[in-house]
Write a structure and sequence with these properties.
The structure holds two protein chains of two kinds. Chain A is mostly helical. Chain A contains eleven helices and no strands. Chain A has a domain of about 160 residues: MetI-like fold. Chain B has two domains: about 55 residues, no CATH class; about 260 residues, Periplasmic binding protein-like II (D-Maltodextrin-Binding Protein, domain 2, 3-Layer(aba) Sandwich). Helix content of chain B is about 40%, strand content about 20%. Classes of the chains: A mainly alpha, B alpha/beta. Chains A and B meet through helix 2, helix 5, helix 6, helix 7 and helix 10 of A and helix 1, helix 2, strand 2 and helix 8 of B.
Chain lengths: ~230, ~325
């Protein structure tokens, strides 16, 4: 264990190129996928959380179930789609970072929808009406709801990001763990472990935690000013 | 105050005149700020898609190979030499032989380097592979705890040793993942004339390294390729119980994915890779490669002229 900490320190200190590549691919994929999931998930979540329409319950249940889909199943389904002899084979994105991003988006989207719709549903029922009387259009009302439920959105985003950057099945199945190209931190950990390099694998695990810590600290810093302005909201 | 506070506060860009500040809930500045967040998120989401372009400059082929080849470190010396000679970059994906051939069958890689003669021959016979060549070989060994509960140490016949392990119900860990090693195991069970089942026979469905670690933890018998064994031998307590049987021969073959089945594959570059593995330079790199002072792979002996591809001999 101590050896692993030392090794992690060494890797970081030397800016080990293999490590940097893994971190780069991991962050590229998980940040992109998280951003896309938030952009597309937030409107859906607001719709589910604030509007009452037939089938709403079904969609909420679907979103919650989506959070429980194993990553390898997502990987398998998308493999079938993206494979050369599959319907989307002509895109030729299997075993590229794009495929990982797509898979991670499919993983992150239900997380954002489920968690953020719950947060949005908890808001005061008069928000939309107030915003509308104050002259907001449809998009303005949406932004108001998002703003009021910001804390919920940040929490949803961070849990989605945490899940995506620590996910293994999708990155392995759709990325193929190609060195310098699609090897993420998690697939690197899996490969080093199966190669018997336990210390290196553990060191990579520690680096992964540090990266996640950094991103979460950044998110907290982003959130602090809001807290100062609205101590009562939080 | 005509405009609410200063534009610096609202972000790092000024985006046109702002709405007067008399709406308690719906302050333009705040909403604008949220707009920035959306823009930044959209940029992050977009850059992932644009990142790709750069790698299309160099020519690349995709190689699906076994975990034993990747773990041995041989590719780390072989591939740079190949790239140096030809300028072709090889993207390696390591997986069991069964999955590698499946990947090739689906047209998702250009060339495979695997170790299962029967499956390779079938793959070529079905028209998915072209230009199959033998590249190198080593052998399998049967490992077990030093106490040797089944009493098979030093036996000359691998099949008889497996039969004895089964009779003693000594724990045996099977790869169970349709890999080259797993199929070799099945061939040996068949030769021993039995279908393994029961509590002593544990099929784990994992890669070679993981399987070996599990066998070590459980003090079980396991069939393993020599390269992986050498890589792990200092970390495990298991010892070699049986080796040297002709049935434990482990040949590696390379096959390009057929361009008639999958027109998009880089067949020419894959063929150059196959040429490189079987030329004198490639053979020398394979034969000279050492791990912990031991030879891992022997280059396949040359047989005069290049044999015509496609006629794979099954079995040994």
């Amino acid at each position: 264990m101590i050896e692993a900490v030392q090794k992690a320190g060494q890797l970081l200190w030397r800016l080990d190129p293999i490590l940097l590549d893994c971190v780069k691919v991991s962050l590229l994929c998980s940040l992109t996928a998280t951003a896309a999931a938030v952009l597309m998930g937030a409107p859906v979540a607001v719709l589910l959380g604030r509007k009452h329409f037939p089938g709403r319950r079904v969609l909420v249940v679907a979103a919650h179930t989506g959070m429980a889909v194993p990553t390898v199943v997502i990987g398998l389904l998308l493999y079938g789609l993206l494979s050369r002899n599959g319907p989307l084979g002509v895109l030729s994105i299997l075993y590229t970072p794009k495929a990982i991003i797509l898979g991670e988006f499919a993983l992150g989207f239900p997380i954002i929808v489920a968690l953020f719709s719950a947060a949005a549903a908890g808001l005061d029922a008069r928000i939309e009406m107030t915003a509308r009387t104050l002259g907001a259009g449809r998009f303005g009302v949406f932004l108001t709801v998002v703003r009021e439920a910001k804390v919920g959105l940040i929490a949803a985003t961070m849990s989605a990001f945490g899940r995506l950057c620590s996910e293994l099945g999708i990155a392995m199945m759709l990325g193929g763990s190609i060195k310098h190209h699609t090897r993420t931190m998690t697939t690197a950990i899996a490969m080093e472990t199966s190669g018997g390099e336990f210390t290196f694998a553990l060191a990579l695990g520690l680096v992964l935690l540090l990266v996640a810590l950094g991103v979460n600290i950044a998110a907290q810093l982003f959130r602090l000013p809001a807290q100062r302005r609205h101590p009562d909201v939080l | 105050m005509r405009r609410n506070s200063c534009w610096v506060q609202s972000g790092f860009l000024w985006v046109g005149p702002q709405v007067p500040d008399h709406r308690p809930l719906f302050r333009a500045m705040r909403v604008k700020k949220l707009g920035y967040v959306i823009v930044v998120l959209a940029l992050i989401a977009l850059q992932g898609g644009c990142k790709e372009g750069s790698s299309s400059q160099t020519r690349t082929i995709r190689l699906a190979t076994t975990t034993s080849t990747e773990n041995s470190g041989l590719l780390d010396v072989l591939l740079p030499a190949f790239q140096n000679d030809t300028g072709i970059e090889v993207h390696v994906m390591s997986m069991g032989t069964g999955k590698a051939l499946r990947t090739a069958r689906d047209g998702n890689c250009d060339v495979v380097l695997v170790h299962d003669p029967k499956a390779e021959a079938k793959f070529v016979a079905e028209g998915f592979g072209a230009n199959r060549q033998k590249v190198m070989y080593n052998d399998f060994v049967i490992l077990g705890p030093a106490s040797d509960p089944a009493g098979v140490k030093g036996m000359k016949s691998a099949a008889e040793a497996m039969a004895k392990i089964a009779a003693a119900k000594s724990i045996f860990i099977s790869r169970g993942d349709n890999s080259g090693t797993h199929n070799k195991e099945m061939v040996l069970w068949q030769a021993a004339g039995l279908e393994p089942s029961g509590r002593w026979f544990r099929s784990v469905g994992r890669g070679m390294g993981d399987t070996l670690e599990m066998a070590d933890q459980m003090k079980a018998c396991v069939l393993v390729d020599r390269a992986t064994f050498i890589k792990f031998r200092r970390k495990i307590d298991l010892v070699v119980l049986v080796d040297g049987d002709k049935r434990l021969h482990n040949p590696y073959g390379v096959i390009a994915v057929s361009p008639t089945k999958h027109p998009h594959v880089s067949y020419n570059d894959a063929a150059r890779f196959i040429d490189f593995l079987t030329c004198d330079k490639g053979r020398k790199i394979i034969g000279d490669y050492r791990l912990q002072g031991e030879i891992l792979f022997h280059p396949w002996p040359k047989r005069g002229e290049q044999p015509a591809g496609g006629k794979g001999e099954g079995g040994l």
